[in-house]
Every structure is written in C-alpha cells, then in structure tokens.
Amino acid sequence: MKYKIIEDDIIEQINSRRLMVGDYLAQTDVLAKEYNVSKLTVDKALTNLANSGYLKRIKRKGTIVFSSLGHKFDQPMKHLSLSQEIRSNGMEPGSRLLEYKIVVGSDVPDVAQAMLLKPSAMLHYFARVRTGNGVPVALSYSYMTVKQIPYIDINVLDKGSLWEYLSNIGFDGTRTSYYNVKIVKADEFRAIHLDVPVDAPLLFSHHISVMRDGTVYNYVDNYFVSERFEYKYAAHVKEGEK
What pLDDT digit, counting tens, does each position of 16-67 carry? Predict the structure, then answer.
C-alpha cells in the first residue's frame, strides 16, 4: 500500500533524526510529487501518523513532527514531581528562584515551535535551583502556558513544590511527557549555581508535557548534578505487547 510506504519512510526519517521534533513537513502537494502518489494518499499517510502520535496537523500551518516515539511508549506511567524525585533519593527538597517573568512566543521562538504555539502566546518563564537537604542538585528552566495555567504563586516557585501547588488548585492535565536525556558540561553560570567545577559533567534532561486533550503546556530543561541525584522512572508495557 502506497500510503504505508510513506508512513514507514517518514518514521525512518524521524528515527534517523533527519526529521526532528518541531520540524514542519513539506506541503501535501510537494510530498505527492516526491512520492509520485496522489494528494489523497499523502493525506491518509499523514493522518495515520498523526493518529499514531508522530505528527501533529495544524490548521492553516501544516504538519509538524510531534514525537519521535509516537504512541509506542505512550503508556501509563507514574508521574513524580521533581520534589518527589528528590524525596525518593532520601533528601528533603527545596527550591531557590533565580528569575521569573512572562514572555511571549516570539521572545523564545524555539520553545514556541516545540510547544506548537503562536508567536503571540504568553508563557510563564522561571529558572530555579532545586536542592536536596539544602545542597544544589539541579538547575531548572521552565516554560508553562498562561492560557492553561493563568496564575502561579511566585512564593511557591521560591520555596515549595509547583506540582503540589497545581494539584491543590485542581490542575490535573498531564497525559504524556516526552524526554530527551544526555550528558553535558557545566558552563560558568551552571557551575556557580550548582556549586560544581566548570566543565563538570551534568545530566541534562529536556521534556515537554502534553495535556489530556493533546495540548502542549509545559517545556522544561533540567541540569542535574549526577553524583548527588539518581533519576528514577517506571515504564509500563501494555498487556499483550513484548
């Protein structure tokens, strides 16, 4: 089936990183010429990939790569806030706010594109040092949509757990989070705030979070001091899958 050939080719491009999350695909008529098929065949392939979680079709904009995993790993997972993760490492969590402001998508175009937002969309931005027993364990940069979360108590960002606060005000929107993890070196700013030498290895974790209705509302970059923190997670496989 011709549409299946297109699906497999696009997935291969995503897996080989020729297409990255946030990239726009060519227009349907361009893809039809490229694959020598009808626009209806291309449309069927793109719709199937959108339904599988790889792509997102945006009205009047086009089709964007939404996930490198699709729904293959879109399984129920126990979500822990960073405060809970720090507690699971046997430490008492804390937070120190470095910066908070409201920005618009045009101020942070890469973030806006990853979150599928318009340039005029408003975002909470905040940077924090996260601590365990008073010792820095992570430097965290977060963006959250004002539309989905109109107000954040700045005192919570400086002292408490944001996710406990959001839960207490009735927010329970997360369906899925998509993670990228790698090792990076501490630059001078990170070294100062994490109390490590410049060029010390840090565990960098980036994720975006999606609400139950499919809306991306959260974009986070965390830099962990790996010798002070162990990141734990549980993956679940659906019954019948191997």
Answer: 878 887 889 999 999 999 999 999 999 999 998 988 888 888 877 889 888 7
DSSP annotation of 106 reads G
Q: Rounded to 5 degrees, what are φ and ψ at 237?
A: -105, 135
Q: Return d(Cα 143, Cα 42) in angstroms, integer.
A: 34
Determine the CATH number of domain 82-228. 3.40.1410.10
Sign of the torsion formed by the C-alpha atoms of 157, 161, 162 and 168: negative
Torsion of CA 26, 28, 31, 32, to 10 degrees: -170
Residue 77 is predicted with a pLDDT of 44
Model's pTM, two decimal places? 0.65
DSSP structure string for 224-242: E-GGG----------TT--
Q: Which residues pair with 55 in a beta bridge?
A: 65
pLDDT per residue over 158-169, tens digit each? 877 787 788 787
Side-chain-side CA neighbours of residue 126 (13 Å): 21
Q: Kindly report the CATH class assigned to 2-65.
A: mainly alpha
Say whether 166 sits in a helix, a strand or coil: helix
Q: Are 122 and 102 in contact (CB under 8 A)?
A: yes
Q: What angle do CA 106, 112, 114 make, to 5 degrees?
A: 155
Which residues, 6+ apart, have CB-to-CB distance to 144 below 8 Å? 123, 124, 152, 217, 218, 219
Alpha carbon 187 to its chain centroid, in Å, reads: 23
Domain assignments of the chain as residue spans, ordered by start: 2-65, 82-228
Tens of pLDDT, residue by residue over 74-89, are 444 445 577 777 777 7
